[in-house]
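Saturday, quiet lab. Running sequence design on the structure tokens for the scaffold JK sent over.
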């Protein structure tokens, strides 16, 4: 279910990218609200993203929930980062992500910290039994939500054509993958 919610939030962000004008969304308190469905007809709850800028820093709160008696969903994700003046780093440069999952009988509390000086990601599942892990990361790795906001901000200034592909290294819990935006 966690992967489903991640997939739904990703899809919804892509929809926003395709219709966003440069800087028309970049406002304090931006709130994006969605109904979350499976297979186009089964309502499984709601999702919301709230953007909170603080000078050269930002916080993005994401949450997904349902009021169903059959399925419990109360997930929260907090992403924090900086808007770097270094053009290679750019806006929405992740520093930390906190994930709190509450899905039926599953509970999770995870932190992902981006150590930029060492090019390392540090992952800790606070409710889990495994020890915290650190692993190397490519330069400019972001969390998924920051990467999507990064593209919303930077692609508005480019001549984007149908079929163009953009890739970015993304940290998701204790692994890194290449996110492709086409």
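Result came back. Writing it out in full:
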């Amino acid at each position: 279910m966690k992967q489903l919610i991640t997939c739904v939030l990703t899809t919804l962000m892509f929809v926003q990218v395709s219709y966003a004008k440069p800087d028309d969304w970049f406002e304090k308190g931006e709130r994006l609200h969605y109904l979350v469905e499976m297979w186009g007809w089964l309502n499984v709850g709601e999702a919301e993203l709230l953007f909170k800028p603080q000078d050269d820093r930002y916080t993005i709160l994401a949450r997904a929930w349902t009021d169903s008696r059959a399925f419990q969903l109360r997930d929260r994700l907090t992403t924090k980062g900086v808007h770097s003046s270094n053009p290679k780093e750019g806006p929405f440069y992740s520093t930390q992500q906190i994930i709190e999952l509450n899905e039926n009988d599953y509970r999770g509390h995870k932190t992902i910290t981006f150590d930029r000086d060492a090019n390392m990601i540090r992952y800790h599942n606070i409710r889990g039994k495994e020890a915290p892990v650190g692993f190397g990361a490519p330069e400019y790795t972001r969390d998924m939500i920051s990467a999507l906001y990064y593209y919303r901000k930077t692609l508005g200034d480019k001549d984007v054509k149908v079929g163009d592909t953009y890739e970015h290294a993304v940290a998701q819990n204790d692994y890194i993958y290449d996110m492709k935006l086409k």
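Notes for JK: Residues 2-19 form the longest helix (18 residues). Residues 100 and 109 are 5 Å apart (CA to CA). Ask whether to fix the surface positions before the next round.
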